[in-house]
Design goal:
Keywords: Membrane, Transmembrane, Transmembrane helix. The protein is α+β, with helices and mostly antiparallel strands. The chain is 40% helix and 20% strand. The protein has a five-stranded mixed β-sheet with strand order 1-2-3-4-5.
């Protein structure tokens, strides 16, 4: 995976190429070459590319890894304060807590807006159970609330619903 330092290096090379294309476009206008307008377009594209690479060099692209967390799938996200993730029905309460913490950290974004004055992101975890063939029931196993005002939230409120774990199918031997 690329790091921010890699993107900064790519930005420098792209900036040098942009300056080269700009100089070539200027020369094309002075000498009235037929491709002068194409070179202007190429220079504009290189400017946009350089700006994008520079933006990627500012924002960290890393994901949080919490020991004990399992894979999850994002099922719902309103882009604001509510998300739902799906987990395996074979998850334990300790694994669910780690998975909720990891999801809350990975789903945090500066672009999320609190609605109605609620500045908390709520991530709910659910799984599907099948009490009989052809019937699926979503079962919410827990949730975590984290603040939207700061990246690192030491006071994440994790709730695990033990009564819901009792409804999960027992593993067969």
């Amino acid at each position: 995976m690329f790091t921010t330092a890699d993107f900064l290096q790519y930005t420098q090379w792209s900036g040098i190429a942009t300056l080269g294309f700009a100089a070539l476009a200027a020369l094309a206008f002075i000498l009235k070459w037929g491709i002068r307008f194409r070179l202007v377009g190429t220079t504009g594209f290189m400017l946009v590319l350089t700006a994008g690479l520079f933006a990627l060099s500012l924002v960290p692209l890393s994901r949080t890894v919490i020991p004990g967390a399992l894979k999850y799938t994002l099922v719902y996200d309103n882009g604001s304060t509510q998300t739902v993730i799906a987990t395996s029905p074979k998850i334990s309460p300790s694994q669910l807590e780690a998975t909720l913490r990891q999801a809350a950290s990975n789903l945090y974004s500066y672009g999320r807006l609190g609605s109605r004055g609620d500045n908390y992101l709520t991530v709910r975890a659910r799984t599907l159970i099948h009490p009989e063939p052809g019937v699926s029931i979503p079962l919410y196993l827990g949730q975590v609330k984290r603040t939207l005002t700061q990246r690192e939230d030491p006071e994440m409120a994790v709730e695990i619903y033990p009564e819901k774990f009792a409804q999960l199918p027992k593993p067969t031997a």
